[in-house]
């Protein structure tokens, strides 16, 4: 279980998170939704200790993150929002780094790496540099790296961006089966159909504020026949969206 308590993050020009409190249970797929700049990545980066919150606390299985940082980091596999890192390394070099940081026994590492690289169609590319890969292939390298230590907690920041349909399908299956084992899967996405299909619970952020936290089923039951997209746009979207779109269309027409 992960508990965020009164989390705030203030950057020099923005208050990215405003008093965020929520609990993420084990055994569920938990989605963070929100417009660009809403605070999703800031929340996930705080959980994986890439940034330090201005105030508030995070507990993982009852242990305070600030006091047990290293032990908690070892439980987490993280996919950042951009895969453009370590471009000069080969895929295999990158996974080497992860394997040594997480102290994965050699045989286990070989077995998991083989399985994951075959699943994600990367087996023929392990000795090529990450910089030579397409965006989707880079994303696959990062995903394989995050899953290599078989961490209990998956923290995936927009993990499907750039992936091909087969890889999206496979990743969704992996996420579902990880949650079914009672483990934790947290991800952010802008694709509301995916969130509706995959998430047990969601948090919707708007300009750093939590505006909904609860089950997707419950949210859908508030508006019969509506999709998560419709409900989300009513809660987090711009007022008068349709009016603005009509105005744009009219302006185009007049030009
Ligand atoms: N390193 C930083 N320095 C200054 N401001 C930052 C920094 N990182 C994020 N911010 C600001 O914090 C706010 C929240 O950003 P964050 O990346 O958490 O949003 P997000 O919901 O993940 O957005 P997106 O959907 O575009 O990825 C934004 O206003 C952003 O400009």
Judged by helices, strands and strand pairing, the structural class is: alpha/beta
Mean pLDDT: 93
What is the share of helical residues? 40-55%
Question: How many strand segments?
Answer: 10
SSE succession = EEEHEEHEHHHEHEHEEHHH
Unique ligands:
adenosine-5'-triphosphate
Tertiary shape: globular
| Largest β sheet strand count, sense and barrel closure | 6 strands, mixed
Strand order, largest beta sheet: 6-7-8-3-9-10
Distance between the termini: 55 Å
The radius of gyration computed from the alpha-carbon positions, rounded to a whole number of angstroms, is 19 Å
- Structure annotation, total helices: 10
Which regions contain 5 or more consecutive residues with pLDDT less than 50? none
Query: Which percent band covers the strand fraction?
Result: 15-25%
Organism: Lentilactobacillus raoultii
GO molecular function, one term: ATP binding
Protein name: ABC transporter ATP-binding protein
Pfam families: ABC_tran
Highlighted features:
255 residues, alpha/beta, 6-stranded mixed beta sheet, 4-stranded antiparallel beta sheet, 10 helices, globular, binds adenosine-5'-triphosphate, AAA+_ATPase, ABC_transporter-like_CS
Description:
This is ABC transporter ATP-binding protein. The chain has 255 residues and is of the alpha/beta class. Helices cover 40% and strands 24% of the residues. It has ten helices and ten strands. The chain has a six-stranded mixed beta sheet, with helices on both faces. Strands 2-1-4-5 form a four-stranded antiparallel beta sheet, with helices on one face. The longest helix has 16 residues, at 165-180. The radius of gyration is 19 Å and the shape is globular. The structure holds adenosine-5'-triphosphate (ATP). Residues 11, 14, 16, 34, 36-42, 81 line the site of adenosine-5'-triphosphate.
């Amino acid at each position: 279980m992960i508990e965020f308590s009164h989390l705030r993050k203030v950057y020099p020009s923005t208050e990215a998170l405003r008093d965020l409190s929520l609990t993420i249970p084990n055994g569920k797929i938990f989605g963070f939704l929100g417009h660009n700049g809403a605070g999703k990545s800031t929340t996930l980066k705080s959980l994986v200790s890439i940034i330090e919150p201005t105030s508030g606390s995070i507990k993982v299985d009852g242990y305070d993150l600030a006091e047990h940082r290293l032990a908690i980091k070892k439980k987490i596999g993280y996919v950042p929002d951009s895969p453009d890192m370590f471009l000069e390394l080969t895929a295999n070099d990158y996974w080497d780094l992860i394997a040594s940081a997480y102290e994965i026994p050699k045989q286990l590492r070989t077995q998991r790496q083989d399985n994951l690289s075959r699943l994600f169609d990367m087996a023929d590319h392990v000795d090529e540099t990450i910089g030579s890969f397409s965006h989707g292939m880079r994303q696959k390298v990062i995903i394989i790296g995050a899953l290599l230590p078989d961490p209990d907690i998956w923290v995936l920041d927009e993990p499907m961006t750039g992936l091909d349909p087969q890889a999206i399908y496979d990743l969704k299956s992996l996420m579902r089966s990880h949650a079914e084992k009672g483990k934790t899967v947290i991800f952010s996405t802008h694709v509301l159909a995916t969130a509706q299909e995959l998430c047990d619970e969601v948090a919707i952020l708007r300009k750093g504020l939590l505006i909904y936290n609860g089950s997707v089923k419950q949210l859908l039951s508030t508006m019969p026949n509506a999709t998560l997209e419709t409900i989300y746009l009513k809660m987090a979207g711009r007022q008068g969206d349709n009016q603005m779109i009509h105005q744009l269309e009219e302006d185009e027409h007049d030009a």
